[in-house]
Amino acid sequence: MQNEIGDFLDYLTYERNVSVNTVHAYRFDLETFVAFLCNDYFIIGRDQLDLKRVDHLAVRSYPRAPDAPEARARVGGAPAFGDAVVFQVPDARRGGRGESGPQRGNAEA
Question: What SS3 string covers 57-106?
Answer without folding.
Answer: HHHHHCCCCCCHHHHHHHCCCCCCCCCCCCCEEECHHHCCCEEECCCCCC
